[in-house]
Specification:
- The complex is a heterodimer.
- Chain A has strands at about 5, 10-15, 20-25, 30-35, 45-50, 65-70, 75-80, 90-95, 105, 110-115.
- By secondary structure, chain A is an all-beta fold.
- In chain A, strands 2, 4, 5, 8, 9 and 10 form a six-stranded mixed beta sheet that branches.
- In chain A, about 35% of the residues are buried.
- Chain B is built from no helices and twelve strands.
- In chain B, strand 10 (about 85-95) and strand 11 form a beta hairpin.
- Chain B is globular, with a radius of gyration of 13 Å.
- The N and C termini of chain B lie far apart (about 40 Å).
- The chains are: A mainly beta, B mainly beta.
Chain lengths: ~120, ~110
């Protein structure tokens, strides 16, 4: 079946502009995660959605970052007033359930470049 | 605090040689341990995982890893490396009640003929 998809694959934006990154999880997966991968760094957790529960936003680096998940499926990560330090690859993952014992399936990522 | 350390940023091995990638973790509860591989321009693919039981786990593509609780380690091994194994490898730790995984900074593997 189809895996996790993300769009766009690449995004170049000017400093100060807002951007939206989209994630389509695997159908039937109730848990969805956003991570950020900066050059030379590991993956940094941003936000987690599980079913209809309130999202875990503990990893969001500033209030310029927000995310929503509509209908328990598609998710959008929004970065307002982008800064150069926001340049990174943003990875989305989904899993069947939210417990740590379920494998996370990753999308190919969106490479964001802020000029 | 939860963390993962991958001490080797870059490793180069010859095709056909054996491989060991190191991973040490710090986790406050019973850890679930994972190795992921990332090829250029691709997402992460799960190689193997350890939750409990036999401390030597087998994964895809001929990889295996051994959990050593006393050393807080989960090293990845492969007896004979293929050129297609060139990629970035990430170790990660999570737990039953965790909402996310904690990843190491990755080890980039180069395979030379």
């Amino acid at each position: 079946g189809a895996g996790v998809s993300q769009s766009p694959s690449n995004k170049v934006t000017e400093k100060g502009k807002d951007v939206e990154l989209r994630c389509d999880p695997i159908s039937g997966h109730t848990a969805l995660y956003w991570y950020r991968q900066s050059l030379g760094q590991g993956l940094e957790f941003l936000i987690y959605f599980q079913g209809n529960s309130a999202p875990d936003k503990s990893g969001l680096p500033s209030d310029r970052f927000s995310a929503e998940r509509t209908g328990g499926s598609v998710s959008t990560l929004t970065i307002q007033r982008t800064q150069q330090e926001d340049s990174a690859v943003y990875l989305c993952a989904s899993s069947l359930k939210g417990s740590g014992s379920y494998e996370q399936y990753f999308g190919p990522g969106t490479r964001l470049t802020v000029t | 605090a939860q963390s993962v350390t991958q001490p080797d940023i870059h490793i180069t091995v010859s095709e056909g040689a054996s491989l060991e990638l190191r991973c040490n973790y710090s986790y406050g509860a019973t850890p679930y341990l994972f190795w992921y591989v990332q090829s250029p321009g691709q997402g992460l693919q799960l190689l193997l995982k350890y939750f409990s039981g036999d401390t030597l786990v087998q994964g895809i593509k001929g990889f295996e890893a051994e959990f050593k609780r006393s050393q807080s380690s989960f090293n990845l091994r492969k007896p004979s490396v293929h050129w297609s194994d060139a990629a970035e490898y990430f170790c990660a730790v999570g737990g039953a009640g965790a909402n996310n995984l904690f990843f190491g900074t990755g080890t980039r593997l180069t395979v030379i003929p």
